[in-house]
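Data card: per-record layout.
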Amino acid sequence: MAELSLTKHSQSFKRFIPGLLLTAIIAFTTAWLGNQSIMSGLGLGALTLAIIVGIAVGNTVYPSIHPYCDEGMQFSKQKLLRLGIILYGFRLTFQQVMDVGVSGVMIDVIMLCSTFIIASTLGYRLLGIDRKTAWLIGAGSSICGAAAVLAAAPVVKAEASKVAVAVATVVIFGTLGIFLYPFIWREFAHALPGISLTQFGIYTGSTMHEVAQVVAAGHAVSVDTENAAVIAKMLRVMMLAPFLLVLGAMVNRYVGEVGTRQKRITFPWFALIFILVALFNSFHFLPPAMVSGINVLDNVLLAMAMAALGLSTRISQLKNAGLRPFLLGLILFIWLVVGGGMINLLIHHWLG
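The structure for this 352-residue chain is written out next.
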């Protein structure tokens, strides 16, 4: 009986292998591409490249092999995603909050809340976008880009097409920001006396989408700007877990309108574990080499999840989404650049 049970489990696991291998190949390929100077210069990291390559494969080769790969692909998109978000906590410590000061914390909180409120309100009420898509675009714009979209997707139970649309807005407007922010510093900083390179870094980190994009834009200004931008951005990333808890409560409130059949209260446990992992990492119990290895593994897991998302996305679905989601992304981008700049100036002046 034991041998029969072992054989059964072995056969069950084999069904996942083709899809897992496919997403892993895309993940490692895009990890290599992301380290190339031309890609890093554009702020296109492994996560963004993974979904782009995944969409390309998903709309060409994948339809002919999907019967063999679907189960592994779904496993990557769901289970590996949650594990990747949990392990993301090893990138953060609560000590990082102290490095940006009270002003940095206040700016990040205000920008997160205001951006998501704008996305939820304008997206659903003014533009007529469904709540799932509006929430995902708001999550990506207000916290940490594609990673936030991926983390929010299972909480709101969003379809792959809606996730892909939200990620697309992050890619388009976040990439534009890489070139815009250094331009703002060069052309307008002289009109704002008293704004330091560090303060401009906080502005950059508190308003740009992706971590890679923040690094690229900050580096183009100065080392001080880059360091401050990364710290401010990491603070926003730390807010991902409490944000997911609040988002889960919002989903439960609108449970009848988001189309799910599940009536009981659902709790995003992986978000709570994410917080606990970040807290654990704050005490530096693990040696740096081990944490570095965990982060490498986490990059692979998140890239595999992105690849799976791309594989399950069809170009026709993006076309059917229309222009309204991208208009919402544009509105949020303008708010982040202009409104975020005003909020940064007010907070620095108030606390200065």
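Known properties of this structure: The chain has a mean pLDDT of 83. Residues 157 and 316 are 21 Å apart (CA to CA).

See the next section for split statistics.
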